[in-house]
Amino acid sequence: MDDAESPAPPQAGTRLYTLLHSNEPPDSSEIAVLQSTSSRIDARLDVLDQEITRLKQLTEERALLVSYGIQNKGILSPMRRMPNEVLVEIFGLCVPSVKFDGLWACRFSMRRAPWVFTRVCRLWRTVALETPGLW
């Protein structure tokens, strides 16, 4: 048997099967076979442990690459290249207003527009703060 194979479990009715399912001691002639089988099992476990470690390393590397790939795609986002004038128009459509005595007034809330725009990114903050019509 080479390192690629795992020892087969014993078949019912065999002496090894009986030994595994009872408290009978092995005969002196069986000890060498059992030790050899045990050594082969240990060797195979070592190989599998190495493969598992390598698989964990590959999984970690894949997760890093997926994250890096997402970040790179984010850099290519059309939102990063959108002209400020378009952002101003979109922001203006999102500002909630209420009419009091013929005047439009915004309700104050840090969770609503235009305040929420200032917490998205540096560009959005700059555009929002430099657009008096939002305030």
From TrEMBL:
Record's protein name: F-box domain-containing protein
